Amino acid sequence: MELFYRKEGSGSPLVIIHGLYGSSDNWINIGKRLAEKHTVYMIDQRNHGRSPFDDSHTFNDMRNDLVEFFDQHQIEKAIVLGHSMGGKAAMWFALDYPEKVEKLVIADIAPKDYLLLKEDSQFYLHQNILLAMQEIDFSKIKSRNDVDEFMAEKIDDERIRQFLLKNVARDKKKKQYKWRVNAEVLYDHLDEIVSGVNIKWFDDRIPITNYPVIFIRGMKSKYILPEDEKLINEIYPDARIVDIPEAGHWLHAEKPQKFMEAVMLCC
Question: What are 158-176's pLDDT values in tens digits?
């Protein structure tokens, strides 16, 4: 699959992989700052942004897309930075292609099965979001405010709605708004998105010491809990965990300066 991407700067390659509902657009400011030292590639993953939609959305798909991207752009080795779902995709890619990874930077996700958290897993939140996205009738939508009003009936959190609204685009052919997220396919693959790339997936290849690894954690987020530190160190014994106070799951947007400082520790 030929992924859409944005490119900034010059120097050693650095590839940024966004999370669920994200896109390269969310990383432009961070990418430009990292471009002072690196050639930065910000991709749109499959079923997101301006990249192609497909009927499949597994971590094997995302890994293979990255392999193809590296080959297309003749990237022999790069720093790989992944956030949330993109962080899991980055870990899975790095596991199978360690020779392509200079350093691995994982933003606010752990290599664990989040479905095991049951009601705290965020699975039902994402299920509700993706169902709401599928239910909207864009033929009746005249503005982004109309989208927000509809989504507000399903999703209370205004910050989440504002993030989702970044995926509303104008379809020039149909002359109406649309999602730049393939909600139906993401809904069908939500189990794997939430549970995949857990310690069982690494079972026969740990400990991993092929490349430096840094995890960046938002201290107001519940995605990397204190008990997850043992799990991370079991897989990546030399990994560093950097905490960003007062940051939630979208830590790169909430605390960009602190996030940059954390990334620059290894880059």
Answer: 889 999 999 999 988 888 9
Containing domain of residue 242, as a range?
5-112+196-264
Report, as an integer, the average pLDDT of 143-156: 92
The span from the CA of 4 to the CA of 70, in Å, is 13
**Predicted local confidence at residue 121, as pLDDT:** 65
Is 82 found in the same domain as 206? yes
Q: Which of 78-82, 220-224, 245-249, 251-255 has the highest mean pLDDT?
A: 78-82
Identify the residue whose tokens are 């193809």. 68
Residue carrying structure tokens 């705290």: 120
The full DSSP string for 59-72 is: HHHHHHHHHHHHHH
CA distances from 255 to 108, 150, 189, 216, 232 (A): 13, 29, 30, 12, 23
- Looking at the structure of the chain, the number of domains it has is 2
What is the CATH number for 246? 3.40.50.1820
Mean local confidence (pLDDT), 256-264: 92
Helix 144-152 to helix 123-135 angle (10° resolution) is 130
Sign for the pseudo-dihedral over CA of 116, 167, 165, 150: negative
Same-domain pairing of 9 and 106: yes
Higher local confidence (pLDDT), 29 or 266: 29
Q: State the catalytic residues.
A: 84, 184, 249
Find tokens 């995890």 and name the residue: 215
Kindly write down the DSSP assignment for every residue of 133-150, as one continuous string: HHH--GGG--SHHHHHHH
Judge contact between 115 and 195, C-beta under 8 A.
yes
- 171 and 203 part of one domain: no
Helix axis angle, 158-165 to 123-135, nearest 10°: 50
